[in-house]
Fold these 4 entries.
Entry 1:
Amino acid sequence: MKNINRLFKKGLALLPLSMVLLLSGCNSELAVLDPKGPVAQTQKDLILYSVYFMLFIVVVVFAAFTYMVVKYRENRPGRKETDYDPHMHGNNKIEVIWTVIPFIIVIALSIPTVDTLFQLEKPPEVEANEEEQEPLVIHATTADWKWFFSYPEENIETVNYLHIPTDRPIEFKLSSADAMTALWIPRLGGQKYNMAGMMNTHYLEADEEGVYKGRNSNFNGEGFTKQTFEVYAESPEEYDQWVSETQDQAPELTQERYDELLAPGLTEEHEFSSTHLAWVNHGNPEGMDYAINRHFEKYGELMHLESHQDAEDFMDEENNDDHESDRDH
Amino acid sequence: MSSHELKTGPLEYRTEEGRLSILGFWIFLGAEIVLFATLFATYAVLFGRTADAPSPGELFEAKTVLIMTFMLLTSSFTCGIAIHEMRRGSVKGLRNWMIVTLILGLGFLGFEIYEFVHYSHEGATLQSSAYWSSFFTLAGTHGLHVTLGIGWVILLLIQLTQRGLTPKTSRKFFVIGLYWHFLDVVWIFIFTSVYLIGMVV
Amino acid sequence: MQLDEFFVTGEPLIYAGMVSIALVTISMLFFLTYYKKWGWLWREWLTTVDHKKIGIMYILSALAMLFRGGVDAMMMRTQLAFPNMNFLNAQHYDEIFTTHGTVMIIFMAMPFLIGLMNFVVPLQIGARDVAFPYLNALSFWSFLFGAMLFNISFVIGGSPDAGWTSYTPLAGAAMSPGPGQNFYLLGLQLSGIGTLATGINFMVTILKMRAPKMRMFQMPIFTWSTLITSFIIVFAFPILTVALALMTLDRIFGAQFFTLTGEGMPMMWANLFWMWGHPEVYIVILPAFGIFSEVISAFARKQLFGYKAMVWAIILIAGLSFLVWVHHFFTMGAGAFVNSVFSISTMLIAVPTGVKIFNWLGTLYKSKINNTVAMMWALAFIPSFVIGGVTGVMLGMASADYQFHNTYFLVAHFHYVLIAGTVFACFSGLVFWYPKMFGHKLNERLGKWSFWFFVIGFHVCFFPQYFVGLDGMPRRVFTIIPEWMPLNIISTVGAFGMGVGFAIFVFAILYSYRYSEREKTGDSWDNGRTLEWATPTPVPFYNFATLPHIDSQDAYVKLKQEGKTTFEEDEVEPIHMPSNTGQPFIMMAFMFVSGFGLVFEWMWMAIGGLLAVLVMMIIRSFDYDEGFHVEVDEIKRTERSARRL
Ligand code: HEM
Ligand SMILES: [Cu+2]
Ligand SMILES: [Cu+2]
């Protein structure tokens, strides 16, 4: 037991060290610490800034703790009589010190927190060598358990994936057709909620080309785990080309088709050359009950979703529906 | 648990049990304040969300509400007199004033039920909209408290007849007195922040 | 309703659960009948109003709930160990994390602590029971029946699946039809009533029933933390009561509070829930702080360092805990200003928390640390909790929280505070006060094994979760992607380590019951500092034959010096005690019936049950039972034999 005891204490002392190692070692791998845009970069900087303070606290406390536990063990060989003072009841000076220092740390953490909070409410600032661009507006709407991305100016809409140009702020307009969800693309920045009947604005930006994972990060029922999407960040030229291709080639989104897609369930990727904003905006109070009025019965049904399944596994029945509706128009 | 009984002071405070119960009841009222505060906050947040149902201004009637307010305020006053009579040691005074309180409370309830039925005929029910849900819940919770209070007073009146004034019965009356005044205070808030504002806006 | 809709069907795991529940029930019934224990059960336990027995029943139920929640946890960790695991499907996983969270917070952590408070606090302040013993029994039965109502959802009707936070509109009638969510609402409502009553009860007890002359600033620190916790309960629980009632009205009576229709406002739920929910997390940590303070000062054989500062820190934390609820949804988009305010208020909590940590270290300074199992749990708490605390501060920085929120980083944080805080405290306190409760100690050797398995397992389980959270793994996903696998495997291994630790703990209880030496004195650890150790073991039902006058902190230390006891023969007077009664049990059983009816929307049953409850209340109102007196002779006899005089 004694040996384990000692081992454990060493282990404890190693914990903060391992934290540093893990943090620095995994820097390039952990999504949040691998930013691909200014928002995520700001947040990473803030996180690392705070980690230094936390490590300082952890080191101080662990050191003091180890010292006390080792030194004042009752049966430590070589204990001295003066090592025991049962009547000590406090010490004002030291108590003031260890109140004031944490307080100062809190202030040191508050300042950049508040500063970044206000920054994140606006489009990311442009770097010196770049020209200022209007943010690209994308409505990101969720419905059990899928994502609709509507580009009002381009008049296109995608399901479960989106394309964005690099180095241009994206102004997401977040809303939900039913349960509360959250848009999260860790490499581009933190999350924000999508809610029915109200609209949240969320700025993100990519400054590197690539394909990034995005997802709903707020639990909303059976299909939650699979409610993911991919972000294709590409050069403005490629992006423009994708837009015009979609405008030319994708089918138009009819209300009927949209209502079908809205029904609870999983769906593959789709693209359309018009947006559902033409008839409903779930971010307005009037759009709040749109989905529930149409699919009330379906919300209670189970998919019996298992881990290896994804949208394709649920497409059979829906494909049949698709064909029928395709025949209609 | 000491059972020492003091020989002076108000009857309800003479036993340790009485003192503990009364303090406990005060704390309970503290919890009740939080409960009603939450309901008021909910009401305030949902104010104006009437959807397709009529707005409160269309339905609230100043006359009914004023009568209700008058009845409940008076009942609080008569309840106070009852407790005063109890302190004087008058079983009869306590009983009679409590009965007056009871009748006023019943009258209040009658009007509230009439009011609720009336609103529902006009298309405003618990189900019609967020606003009306919160209205019926807030006013209804108060009404439910009044109902329970009335039942409680009846039980106590029976016990009073059986046992007369003892430290225990007087403690019980004292406590329900607190409860009744509390409901009165809550009603004043409902009257002003629900009815008056609802009628004006 | 068809029978196959009533019972949950089609799942091997659930069938297994049903069978084991049936077997346990039958064997319990059999043993009770065979050994003719029914009368004993009724007289000694079901009708008791003794705070000590009620405390023990709380603790035993909490251990059972810890087992249930723990099994849930193992199942989740198994499912998450590898990508594409097919142990649980999405729906089952959702149900299990929902019941796990709810059971652990509401039916494990709180009852465990309330159990310890029940047993310890009256003894610490020199009271013969709590202020309202009848109400105390009522609280316990409301908790137990509430817990049962929640737990039967496993086999009857289906479990809730919207998370312990039950956010609307997901948890509303439209998106979560069926009885599952109703079980959550009514189970919590029922047990919440009891918790509120407990809060009132302990406030009055501590404010009014302290031993002669004991001043507030001489109370043991665990009593202090109980008092402050009671304040939080009284001011926070009514909010939960309302929130649950509103959702119940929504789901069962068609109201429109949190709905997507009728201009309802779903996000109001999140606000109400966390206005209760954040104070709630402090309800389960402050008593834990109290326990650690007691254990540390007992086994460091030293007065608590900075007693006054400790008390003020608790009060400050309690006050602040009502001002930070928005930090649970910084991402709702309330704007930079609101988030700034709540960020700062959140981080401020770390200051008094830090003060407490340093004061514990100060207590260890120049002490004589005796490494018993109780002390080891308390020592392990300090560094572990610090990790939970600093990551809490990181979460409190709203703009960083946008990246942490709803990820495994958050999961790691709250397990670091809840397990290293609350669970360690429950174990520490149980081991510490065990001899007072049961007349023998828990086996120390087994205790150490259980400790090491549990503590190491805990760190192995939850430390990696900070990193997998930073790697983008959200909470509540039922399956992982390959990138997250290595850390998840480690985590699962750790979880099973904790499982082994818990199993050894339970085994230690059985083993010690059989083999431990019986206690001979009341001061089991030879270093008791507070009044509970002044009583003989087993504690007589009236606790104190005579009440000592208290004029210092650590009252028992002083008594020992002065050679005084709580049995001064010539001062013994008859003691007034409350009578046992079956009413609380019966009343809450009817409440259970009513709640069950409401879950299935069988109004006849709901109303019938409620009427029966009203009848019970009327009976209670007419019940003028004055209790009874324990005569001087009996007290002397009891004390002499208990003290081996
Ligand atoms: C230093 C003190 C603490 C700070 C600054 C702090 C901060 C936070 C913050 C900001 C969150 C929300 C994070 C998010 O949802 O993104 C959170 C969540 C949580 N905290 Fe703490 N915390 C502290 C201590 C505690 C303690 C002592 C407990 C309980 C024993 C606790 C239990 C929880 C729980 C259960 C959650 C998650 C609830 C959920 O979403 O299910 N925290 N904490
Ligand atoms: Cu909202
Ligand atoms: Cu919180």
Entry 2:
Amino acid sequence: MPKKIKLTDKGAEFLKQIEKLSGETITMCDQCGTCSGGCPFVEEMDITPSQIMRKTMLGQMDVLDSKTMWICASCFTCTVRCPRILDVSKVSEALRQTKLRQAIDNIDIKDISKEDAEELPSIAVVSAFRKFTS
Amino acid sequence: MSDAQKMVKVYVMGEAYMVPEGSTIIGAFEYAGFQLKRGVGCREGFCGACATVYREKGDYKMKGGLGCQTVVTDEMYIAQIPFVPADKPTYKMEEITPDAGTFMNLYPSVFRCVSCNTCTKACPQDIQVMDYIQAIIRGDIAEAASLSFDCIRCGLCALRCPAEIVQFNAAILAQRLYGKYIAPQSKELEARVNEIIEGKYEKELNDLVGMAKQELIDKYYSREIKIS
Amino acid sequence: MKDNIKIPYFPGCTLKTTAKNFEISAIEAGKKIGIEMVEMPKWNCCGVVSSLTSDDLMKHVAPVRNFVHAEEMSEKGTVNDSRMLILCSMCFNTMKNTNRRVKNNAEDMKSINDFMYLEKDYEGKVEVVHYFELLKEIGFDKIAEKVTKSLKDMKIAPYYGCMLLRPKEIGIDNAEAPAIIEDFITSVGAEPVNWDAKGRCCGSYHTVNNKDIVVNLAKGIIENAHRSGADAIITSCPLCAFNLDNRQKLIMEKDPNFKTMPVFYFTQLLALALGLEEKFIGLEDHYIDPKELLKNKNLI
Ligand code: SF4
Ligand code: SF4
Ligand code: SF4
Ligand code: SF4
Ligand code: FES
């Protein structure tokens, strides 16, 4: 007899919200692991890209506490490889935005040192601010 | 003058008042009985102390203006913005350079601009605010200084900016950098400053300080006025 | 086809600051091969990274504002090509992404046009094109004919990074097996090496607050290029260039045995091969000095 997983109300609400923000049908993910296998950042992450898919699918909101969504740099490697044509980069963005929209930033722009500020190209700073600040 | 001054209705902080048609917003405030201690200065459109935001009847647009220059319209909603909180880092002009890196260090928020143009729409001085912020991002300090030249620091742009940028303080920095490092230096000014340092005018100045009041007044009115 | 492509050119912020050599070499090389780049009289930062959420339209405003100005240029007749030419890979990706979105979604287009009520409406008439695509259009064989100083002894690692290849709808070539930069390298007389890291991420904006990530990734990429026998890496992204070139400083601090490698913008090699003067190539702006390599190969 297959067992049916039942999400908590809050969990189901969370999944719905992330699916809406990302535009991805997260429950379609087969957990094949292709995204994690090809992700150039996977070693830096605490949970893998496929795990954020799984956790979100199950409505586990502690996925928001993982480093993974902040490490994901939207390199789109997984985007072009997923056999289910899912886009993990969009799910990461939706998770980041869930935090940022509560005005919880991932960096303090004042923390950039003077030396770095003088050396960094604008392209780096503009993109980091867009990804990490609300 | 007609006997009956035509009146219009305005809402000051949500409260309705009848004020004479043609009043400025500051005028309307005072007619309605408010005593303005902050949020007004020169009354001539120069000092930028009187930033105001308002909405007109039937218009969804939130507008910004100078209270001393903007004339009220019937059913206008008004709020006075006496002060816009804005961070202002300190720096030594000798230690900074006229490039984008300086702004990354002192005003990093500039790099958060999303090009929404809200600042430009809000500016009562018709300054292309977004364009000067964009010029800063690309390190074009001369352009930023020139575009922001007419800024009177009313703060309305900063109040509306979704990226929480303090445009007007960044503009001062751009103008200072331009003045110090980019603008052609005036030889005459340099020569005069040297003369002053060398004490060429000390005697003349001391004479003036020592003069009696009436003598000073006479001297003032009989001075030679050069009109070029 | 037109003899001379006169096209609106969107520089992006970084080509005006840390990547000036990218811009000047592209402009000057372009003149030699029939591309006249007309810098847009008004443009703003594209935002560098696209918003990937379904709502957040605000982040698409900046690209659309640029498209409006490009349309104006076409209307005024200051250009003979209505597309928008971009050099920087990140700008290219961001602008093309927004363009696709608003063109395929009338509601989003309307919302953004309504929001920008002071500007003219964007009518969706602009296509975004990358310099590489323009070279391909002109024909790599035609480019080869114009080469006066063949880079024949050079082995070059073609670095695509992320933004020229992915997502598929945006990429300029096959996402997993691209060839366009290889074709370019061949056209200037050099030899493209076959390597594994051509599409691997350099660490991108993590260079701001998580340098270790970038150091690890950049080191892997450069070592891979060495293993494949490359003399240098070429890129079309000023952020990749910073991470691969300038960050070699931190890599050397971490690993004293690390072997450095020069990183070029592809347009610098194009300018070199077309026989342009050194001042148009900008060899001074590198962290790892490429001049010794070029001298050894008798190119300067
Ligand atoms: S590649 Fe696609 S299907 Fe496979 S685990 Fe990742 S998201 Fe799920
Ligand atoms: S988009 Fe994010 S999750 Fe996907 S491969 Fe790149 S860094 Fe990894
Ligand atoms: S730029 Fe800003 S502070 Fe300056 S005048 Fe305009 S709105 Fe006021
Ligand atoms: S209001 Fe702020 S974000 Fe919008 S264009 Fe002006 S500076 Fe940029
Ligand atoms: S009071 Fe000075 S500008 Fe209005």
Entry 3:
Amino acid sequence: MSFEPLGENRFIVPIGPQHPALKEPGHFEFVVDGEIVTGASVRLGYVHRGIEKGAEDRTWIQNLYLMERICGICSHIHATAFVQGVEKLAGVEAPPRARAIREVFAELERIHSHMLWLGVAAHEGGFDALFMYSWRDREVVMDMLEMLSGNRVHYSANLIGGVKYDLNPEMMDKIRDGLNYLEERLAHYLDVVNHDETFIGRTRGIGTMTREQAQLLGAVGPTARASNFAFDVRVDAPYAAYAEFPVEMVVAQEGDLHARFVVRILETMESIRVLRRIFDNLPESELVTRVPRRIPAGETISRVEAPRGELFYFIASSGGEKPERVKVRTPSLCNWGTVITLAVGHKLADMPMILAGIDPCFSCNDRLVMVKRNHQDPQVWTWADLRNYGIEYYR
Amino acid sequence: MGLEVSKPWQQALDKIRTWARVNSPWAIHFNSGSCNGCDIEILATLTPRYDVERFGIKLQGSPRHADVLICTGPVSLQAKDRLLRIYWQMPEPKFVIAVGSCGLSGGVFHGCYNIVKGIDEVLPVDVFVPGCPPRPEAIIYGVAVLLEALKSGKRPERTMTVELPAGFEKPQAEVRQ
Amino acid sequence: MSSLEETLQRAENLLQPYGQSFNRPELNRLDVYLQRENLLAAVQALLEARWGYLSTITGIDRPSAAVEEGQTPTEGEIEVLYSFCSGAAVVSLRVRAPYSDAALPSICPLIPSATLGERELMEMFGVKVEGTPDTSRLILADSWPEGVYPLRKSFVPAARFSGEAKGG
Ligand code: SF4
């Protein structure tokens, strides 16, 4: 449980720059003693672009598009957190239909994100078939998002004071069909995760985190809920339309990697259920309310539940056209802290799965890994080497 | 390079090289500080709906095996060094595809302090794929455009000098183009 | 709603000995202004009572008077918010440190995961966090100059965002 800087004998894993589904590339340094990891530290900043500073130079509306592009996987939820904060400062509330539509996008995004993660995490463990299947099925959600907004990734559904896109009955029917298919597939994945022997062998009892640890380390989202640390902003502090269309919180007791898989799959199913409920009772109203161009001075905190956990925005306005300060704390940042601690005491071979298990948004491409064991010369490994090493180790 | 160009077998060899290159380009993907939007779309091209492997395009890990560098993001200061390193590690001939608006000009991150503003500030880019993010089809099309240019030998000469990252030695044996 | 009120009230009672002043800016929020000497004790009080979890550490630059661009700023302060969440309730411990003595005690001994937030504070605001275990660079590039803190208001990026589309 220490974050001490590392000494001489280190095994450096720059999980970094090169891979596809990565949100906050980090550079990890692991100290290894034989097979066992005895220490870890992290270096971020490969995707640091200076957004918080950039936000101070842009108007409220321009910022909306900037915030959306903090992350391509959770773009809607970033924008939602931002507009909700701004709306609070301006003292307006989005109309009920707009709030419901925000929830629709948020839940569709959650489904896409969790399926993406399922594939990536499976890939890290060498279960490539599952990777391909879950990404194939994920395209169904991408189609829905494209149908609603015209774009597959940055849907830009939010406006300050409401949303841009409306839902019509044909769209809802199409989405319902898609959801039925997905529900079936998810039930199948749940079955695989729970019953496939090799899968269980690589996930049960690995990377276990107790509830106390989760709380102390500040774990958030599904990672925390898998350790029975039950909090979910959607339930605890309902925003958008979560008060009218509540979701059930999914928690698990075990706290291991397996529990993280199960929690995420069950959460996806819960999203499907709540989407159906919204479609059946979508409130009627206009889509936007008027918001002044200058936002009154003040400070606010806006919290939402992103697919990876609690997303925290602090927004300060000095009464002008531009914000005074925007602070964004993404869920992955919290979960890095848990990895540093979780890694200690585990086998090197488990690292890819443990890292993938918190869903820090990184996946299957190549990263360079330097291995320096005890007093040997440092070796350079690629991430693929480490991954293969992990797969071979369990063969 | 100049000596043996005229030899017929050399010409034949060149043809075979181009044929092989065009039929199965290996690509490496690098995120230089992007928001991931482009990256998940690149990954999506690998998966069953789009499946670029059926065209012989393979996304793989090591820069030393790659012909094409598919790069996203506005190039953050911290990632710049890594990007250069990867570029230098790739064997000649090598090609760069810049994917996404922010790889083209900095896009939405324009004016942020920690970016270089576009991949073409750092590397000679062969193909630009605009979009935020571009659809997977657009990315595949970008690769196809590159291959077309290779096949017809219409690739423009590169004049840009690429910076060497600190502590990196220029590879000795430059393979002939 | 009453349970939200209770939660906040409980926090207020816990922090009573340490806070200088208390403020309720929003229904679900409690701001507690502290002297930095009392920061650790206040965090300890919340932890011992198992009140919520540390959600984030936010820094804000507060230059004193209005400073013209390019002029040297006069003595300002860095304000730091330690936000704790419990359900819908958010308690922010607010401390201030003047530029000339921009230092705060580390809360890592109590909450190890605060390390990332504290490292960010050091890099982006130039606040010295005394006793934080890891002081290596976390976010900024290796080539970033020492002593330049991008989130201070006095820092102006070379190429600013103008908001106008480029012509031609
Ligand atoms: S172009 Fe758009 S989607 Fe692509 S990385 Fe940049 S911001 Fe993200």
Entry 4:
Amino acid sequence: MTHSLTFPDVSVGDELPPLDVPLTSAVIVGGALASRDYTPVHHDSAAARAQGMQDVFMNILTTNGYLGRYVTDWAGPKARITALSVKLGAPNVVGDTMKMTGSVVSADADSGEIEVEVVGRNAWGNHAEGKVRVTLPKGA
Amino acid sequence: MPLSQAQKRELEAKMQEFVGLPISEPKPGRDAVNEPMIRQWCDAMADENPIYWDAAAAKEAGYDGVVAPPTMLQAWTMQGFEMAEGYDVPKNNEHRLHKLLTDHGYTSVVATNTDQGYTRYLAPGDVVTANTVIESISEEKATALGIGYFINTRTTFTDQDGDEVGWLTFRVLKFVPQQQPQAADDGGAGAAAAPGIIRPPMGHDNGWWWELVQDGVLAIQRCNGCGALHHPPRPMCNQCRSMDMGHVEASGRGTVHSFTVIRHPQFPGYDMPILAALIDLEEGTRIVSNVVDCRPEDVHIGMKVTCRIDEVEDGFKLPVFVPAG
Ligand SMILES: [Zn+2]
């Protein structure tokens, strides 16, 4: 089974490996439909252009999904996400790339919970600035 | 037309009637938590966490079997296909509140924040119900997008036993756009072009200076009447009122007179943070520029710097300053 981090493996200041997410139509439209979000701006480029955007853009559930995935890619299957807090910014429009970076900003030994600050940045600025709380196994 | 103060008070009173209301009757999600929807989600997010795919891996991680990604919480109660119809005809209290604002000129909406908590991971068979309440509405705020109101909603998610499985708060700004949205004129053919830096306006008075920069020269305007140096270039000397202007080539050596580190807002097309500095050139004028190849914590007043002309974008050069070697 995939390796999981345990609490003692992690220190405040640790950085997560960066991840580039290519914003293809498949990612944007697929994410919207997988979250049952049929709001037209997420699948219909004419509707997106009518709102001043160049093309369809990512819905919030997909953003949340990528934030969660980014953290568990690093922390492994035994990490348990307990909370997510996201400040939304520049839309993720088809054709761009979201560059994700993250670092551990707090760690509580009693609960085994850590907080990871994650930024998803595209050509227009920060798409999302998030904090993901994760509980890790206590380890040996 | 902006609203009068009286109209605004009337609008705000109507808005406050929505505070505390559920957006609609709580309704269970159409489908119970199920593996096909989990896999479809994981495909779209390229999420290979085995606890979403493989019962054995999930058991090893302490679950009874495959679980749903926690960030999928809201997906279980989304309305789905009917959302494509839009909300010209409001279907619930949230739509009615938004329409009230739209009808008063607050036509645009943008989501600004979401917070959520997951009490437990959901598993196939769980039936999720969303209970959403309009929690609060801010005073009118001036924002970078335009004036508007922040609307906060709170959703509590419960399972088939009525137990809470998670919660979600959501904040949107309903605002009067400062610029009317424009449809792109490229017919949608292109992807979003990456934004570039903002180019300087080049006019009669300063165009020659920028042209010299493109040739790799940092120039300083000099009055042919009295010899005074000026930057930025101007049409008339402030010492002798001569309009006969020439220039000298600067050595590029200077000293940081003052500086600021710009971290927010994060301008598209710029590498943040930006070190913006006022540089004393050794010839005796000052220039606003950027200090580069230098960490923000290392720049200081009095620091010696040297000009370098960088091609910051294809075909466009900008003078910047680097710490003097
Ligand atoms: Zn003069």
